[in-house]
Amino acid sequence: MYTPEAYGRDKTRRFPVIYWLHGHGGGLRGLPKLVSYFARAMAAGKMPLVVIVFPNGLAEGMWCDSKDGRTPLERIVVKELVPYVDANFRTIASREGRLVEGFSMGGYGAARLGLKYSDIFGAASILGAGPMQREFTPAKGPPEKMRARARILRKVYGGDQEYFQAQSPRELAEQYADEVRGRLRLRVAVGGRDAMLRPNEAFSKHLKDLKIPHTFLVAPGVGHNPLALFDVLGDETWAFYRQVFGSLPQPSSEPEPEK
C-alpha cells in the first residue's frame, strides 16, 4: 500500500484510492518502479494525491472467483479488501473516490470489477488487458504463454469455456450496460505493438456497440509494458486521474456528532 507524504502530514484529509491489479506472475518485482512513477507524478502536480492499494491476486488468479471456489479473489477484493481499507485508512469511502486499474491480467480484472461493481468503483482503467478474446484456449495467444493458458483454464475456469465467458469483460459489459452507461468512467489503453492490441480493439468496439462511453488509446510502438505505455501516452496518462479525482471534495475525517 502506498500513501503520499501528505497523508502523514494532514491528519484530517481524506484521499481517493486506486486499486492497482497486477498482471500474470504476481507483479511484485515491478512495484517499486511503479510506485516511484506515481509518486513523481503526484509531486509534480500531474495527478491528484491518492492512496494506492496493491492487492495480491496470486500469480495466475485472474482476479475472479475460481470455478471450484478455492480462490475467490473477486469476493476478497470487493467484499473484504475495500471495506477494510475504508475502515482503517482515511479514504474517500464512496464510488467517486475509488478507481480500479490494472495491467495485462490486471487490466482484465479491472475491466471485470469495474463493469460488475460500478456501485463500488467510479472508474476503471484497463491497460494492456488480457485475455479479452471470446474463447480462452491454450492454442490462441502468444506461443510462449501456451502452457500458462492451459494451466489457468484448468485451475481458474475448471476447463469450462462457458464459465470463462461468464467471467469475461465482454459478457459483463452486456450484462451491466444499463448500469454503467454514463456512470462509470472507462479508459482502455494498449500498446501498438502489444499482442493484446487486436482483442482490446475488439473490446472497444463492443463497448461502442453497447453505447458505453469510454476512452480508447493506442500508444504507437509500445509492446506489453505498463510504464512504456504511460510514457508514450504522456499527459493523457495523468489527465484521466485528474478527470476522475480532480474535483472531489475533501471531507473531514472527524466523526459526525451524535444525534
User: What's the pLDDT, averaged over the residues?
Assistant: 93
Count of domains: 1
What topology, given as strand order, has the largest sheet?
2-1-3-4-5-6
What characterizes the major β-sheet?
Answer: 6 strands, parallel
In sequence order, what are the helices and strands, one letter per element?
Answer: HEHEHEHEHHHHEHEHH
Indicate the percent of residues in helices.
40-55%
CATH class wording? Alpha Beta
Radius of gyration, taken over Cα atoms and rounded to an integer in Å: 18 Å
CATH superfamily placement: Alpha/Beta hydrolase fold, catalytic domain
What class do helices, strands and sheet pairing give? alpha/beta
Given as residue ranges, the uncertain stretches (5+ residues, pLDDT < 50) are: 251-259
Counting H and I runs of at least 4 residues, what is the number of helices? 11
Shape: globular
- What is the CA-CA span between the terminal residues? 35 Å
How many β-strand stretches?
Answer: 6
Named CATH architecture: 3-Layer(aba) Sandwich
Please state roughly what percent of the residues sit in beta strands, choosing from under 5%, 5-15%, 15-25%, 25-35%, 35-45% or over 45%: 5-15%
CATH topology: Rossmann fold
